Each structure stands twice: as C-alpha cells, then as structure tokens.
Amino acid sequence: MATYHQSTTPPAPAQTSAAPRAGWPTVKLLIPYLWEFKARVAIALTFLVAAKLANVGVPLILKRIVDALDPTQAMVALPLMLLLAYGALRLSTTLFAELRDIVFVRVTQRAVRRIALTVFRHLHSLSLRFHLDRQTGGVSRDIERGTRGIGTLMSYMLFSIIPVILEFTLVAIVLLTHFDWRFAAVTFGAVVVYIGFTIAVTEWRTSIRREANELDSRANSRAIDSLLNYETVKYFNNEEFEARRYDESLTRYEAAAVRTESSLGLLNIGQSCVIAIAVTLLMIFAAQGVVAKTLTLGDLMLINGLLIQLYIPLNFLGMVYREIKQAQIDLERMFRLLAENREIRDRPDARELAGVHAAVRFENVDFAYNSNRPILNGVNFELPAGNKVAIVGHSGSGKSTLARLLYRFYDVGAGRISINDVDIRDLKQSHLRAAIGIVPQDTVLFNDTIYYNIQYGRPEATRDEVIAAAQAAHIYDFITSLPDGFEARVGERGLKLSGGEKQRVAIARAILKNPRILIFDEATSALDSATEQAIQAELEQISKGRTTLVIAHRLSTVMDAHQILVMDAGHIVERGTHRELLARAGAYAEMWALQQQEEAKQGETAHPDPRLLATAIR
Prior knowledge:
Elements: H1 25-28, H2 31-36, H3 38-68, H4 77-125, H5 128-133, H6 136-178, H7 181-228, H8 230-235, H9 239-291, H10 297-338, E1 360-370, E2 373-383, E3 388-393, H11 399-406, E4 414-419, E5 422-423, H12 429-434, E6 436-439, H13 450-455, H14 463-472, H15 476-481, H16 499-513, E7 517-521, H17 529-543, E8 547-552, E9 563-568, E10 571-576, H18 578-584, H19 587-601, H20 610-617
C-alpha cells in the first residue's frame, strides 16, 4: 500500500526575518572574499603603509627645508637634497596609493561578481510563490545598488579607515615627541568630538536613507511594470494615468532625497566647525611659540602640514563613514533577497530519475495556494509510460495547477506525486525538470533571436537540430521569410511575434528538448484552425512513445487520448475515453455539446474536422 506524506499547505516564505540589518554584521559576509585573495590584500596593505609613511614624511622634510633656508644658516647643498627628498616623498604618496588600487581591484570585482551570481542563482531557486509576488524593477534596483555597495564597503573599510588610524597614530607620535602637551590634547580632543558627532548624525541619517532607497525601488518598480505592459497602457489610453502614478512615487522619493541631502549639509557644517576650531587653536599656539622663539618657522610649517595631513583624511573619514553606512543599507536590501526562504529544496539524499520511460501517478493530492482557498482535493490518477492523458474542465478547476505540481514549482499539501514509483520530492529538481517538456498556454520569450529562443530548449543543440525542430513545429517557413531569418529578434517578451508564432516557437523548443514527459497546456489555443490541425498532427507524432499530459479547452484536440479526466472545483468528476464519456452523457458530454454549438455559430462546421465526422457517424 502506498504511503502518503501528509502536511499542511506550504506557508508563504519568510520575508525579511533572517535578513541582516544595516550594520557591521553585514561586513562579516565579505570576509571570505577578502581571505580568498589574502596575498593581494597583504600586498595592498603594504603599499598603503608605504603611502602613509611617505605622506607623514612630507611635512617633516618641509620643516627642515624652511629651517635650512633661514638667512642665518642658509646652505645651498642641504636644501637641494631636502627638496629632492620632498619631491620623492610627494611622488611616493601617489605612486603607492595607485599601486595599492591596482593590486586590490581584482579582489573587489571578484567579490561583486560572486555575490551578484549568488543572489541571481538564489532568485532562480526560489519558489513560484515568491516570483508571483515580486516586483522586477524593485528587485533589479536592489541588486544593482547592493553590488555597487560591495565595492564601496570593501575599499573604504580597508583603504580609508585603516589609513586614517595609521596616519593619526603617526601624527600623534610626532606631536608628542616634538611639541608640548597642548598640541596633542587639542588634536586628540578634536578627533574624538569629530568622530562622535559624525557617528551620531550619520546614524540619524540612516533611517532617512533607508526610506529613500525604499521609495526609489518602488518608483523603479512602477516604471518597469508600466513599460512591460506597454500595449495594455496603449489599449486603454492611460499614458497620463501611468505618468501620474510614476510621478507620485517620484514625488515621495524627491522629498526623502531632499531630507537626505539637507541632513548631509548639516553634517558637513558641523564637521567643518570642529576642524576649523581645532586648527585655529593649534595655529595660535604655534604662532605664540614662534614669537617666543621656542619654535621655529619650520615648526609652524610642520604643525600646519601635519594638521592638513590629518584633518583632510579625517574629513574624508566622515564621508567614508557615511558611504559605508549607505553601502550597508544597500547590501541589507540585497542580502534580504538571499534570506528569502527556499520553499522547494532538494533533500540531502535526492536521487536522479532512472529509466528511459516515465510513468506518473497522482495519489490523493491536496493543494492550496492559500490556506483559505483550496485548489485540489484528493486528486487520484495514473499516467502510464507512453500514454496520453488529457485534463479538461472549466477555468479555475485546477488543471494548470497539476502541471505546476508535477514540475515541483510547489510541493503538494497532502498525498504525493510519483514518477516510476518514486516521490518527486526524493528526486533532484534538475533531473526532474530535465525529464519534462512543456508548451504553455501563455508563451513568454526572451528578448533575443528566434534561434536563441528555440535553442533554449537544449542549449547544446546543433543548428541542424534547431532547424529540424522549427520544421516540426511548422514555423520554419515563417522564419526563413523574415529578412534576418533565425537571427530576427523577437522583442520584449516576444511582442514582435503574434500569439500563434510565439506558441509555435514554444512547440519547437519543447521538441528540441526531447523529454520523457510532455505537457501541452492549451498548446494550440492561439492558433487558427488550419494551423492547429497541422500542428496537432505533429504533436501527436512527437507524443508517440512519450508520457503525455494534455491540458485542453478544445475537446476536439484530446479525442485520441487514452484517458480523459474531467475536473471541476479541484475534483476529478469523470474519467474515461472520449467515446465512454459521451456515452455517459455527463459533464463531458455537456461541454462537448456546447463547443459544437459554438463552432456551428462561428461557421466552423463548413469545413468540419474529419475526426469529428467520424465520431458523429459512430
């Protein structure tokens, strides 16, 4: 006896509970990427230290130059050597800084590449539930900002905070060894006040920046959604309506952006005040020392040079801290995507699908997209290997849900689906989906060439195989009639092609995949009667020897199925062959009669399908 796996309806994935908040824990996620290139990082840090030593050495040499040029002790040779040393130190500062960036750039770009790829793969691993709820524009903007933030965070953390700490230490040593305690006290006090003020104001600005990011993503989502539905906008003459909706989002973003920039101005003013007060005090002390002859003009230049050397990077540190916090916010939104729950996962012991043929079985399957709206209830049927089973029924009866469950876009709520007596939850998703080919009702194509879209069914296929698939789908003549042939681009979502042309591309793609299980989900719904009959014959040909599930609205396309299942409100209410169901005079016979009446009204009975005549005679 079969054992069924019982469970409740799968919950919607967690949204952000596991996502890191903007803060220093986010930085830990980047450490593995630094460690991978530890040799490059070490070399870059060596260049960094050399650059800072040269930078601090500049005012020390300048002091000696000024003192050497004093009229009472001027010498020609010594200032010349010092001037050469001064130029060498100036060059070294820039040279080592540039060498540092050249060495480190690969570390940054590799981290950006790998994290972006990780997020991309994760998005593809999420269930259909997530992708039905997402907004493409917002997600793409989050990834764009997040990857940009990686470079900012890595570079600034390593090459801005560490250098400032190093430079501050060197300046402190010079001040303590060359001057009295007042110089060091004012310098240290100013640094403490500056850093404290910067952190406090930046933390306040973080919430404003986060709100601005949220509004920016929302505005971008609206713009992308509107452009993707360009035809619908035109159909209803709603260009101005869409512009107003977009402007509403932009207006809210504008207000948040104004607050962000205004608060930045306040931060800059406060930082400048701290630096100006400290520099003024130190210059007063130095001038007093020169007047009292306890300090030389060279000492005055040294103090001024040291303060410039210190406060310029310290002022830069304020910007760096702001950028780091902003990068953390941007990364937070991207890593929130990584925190999305992967509702459908391979089990640790998942295996490959064995055998050349595939027999499918649905056993007491229950399913609901939401707990308050059940879709399938106790669905039982078997699809033997090599047979064709058709699913018919009114819209909303659960037909297409069966295909989604078989593909394992969702897991069943109760019961099980098996292939060759193996629960599909015990199979690797990649092997399960490689065994299934589908021609969906609504075909969406990539914005690429026709050749690319057909070859997508099996990317390693040769050109001859792609052409053969196009011929089998009766689209080859149309393709060759185009000026660019197979290289003709289909446009966004394939909008340059008609519905029938898109569907024939989908049929060619499924033929090229050469799967063990075929699913036709209203595969010929967008075709005219003549083309439908031609393709239907081809579909019947490629279905031979394969396990085929046909989801159909037109009953005339499933008359030759080994078994027809009639669904209503998530239940199978009838099952049997075409003749058996007509003889039963139930739901199927009623649907058949209604379709016959509709076809008669449309004049389609002028050239009836020979199979329909044969059925009527029988």
